[in-house]
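Q: Hi! First time doing this. I have a protein sequence and I read that you can turn it into a structure. Is that right? Here it is:
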Amino acid sequence: MYYKEYIRSAYRHLSTCKQLMDDIKNTRGTTSECNHWLCEVYYLSGYVLECMLSYVLFYDYNDHVKNHKFYYGEFLTHNLTSKVHHVRNVAHCQLNGIVLISTSHQKRSINALFSRWNVDYRYEPLQTVSYDDLEAYLQSIEEAKNQILNQYPIK
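A: Yes, that's right. Below is the predicted 3D structure, encoded as structure tokens:
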């Protein structure tokens, strides 16, 4: 991949999350069905964040990212906290003031969604995810995306 592909992927994944949230809101499905889809949205949301962080990490690198010195090591993790650490402290990328990534959300349950996200949810989904919390979480991700693009505009 090339660095610009990461932000395009983040856009696609976030758009899918928003569409699924609209579908869930308008469905007459069972609570179990709705919860299943909320968990799927939450799972996909982690990839939105991963793609955004990868975009920052490889910003302005015009070769394939596998050729970049920061591609290996902590970058290959699906742990969002470790990925943020790698981007900030190893690659020394500026992420100041970006909600969820460098500043906490005012609501603890939203911060918990960020810190507990795990790629293993594709195998063992969460028991429940609150629609309202997930909607607020996605709004925070959208805000973080906009803040990142202000700091790292697409060229």
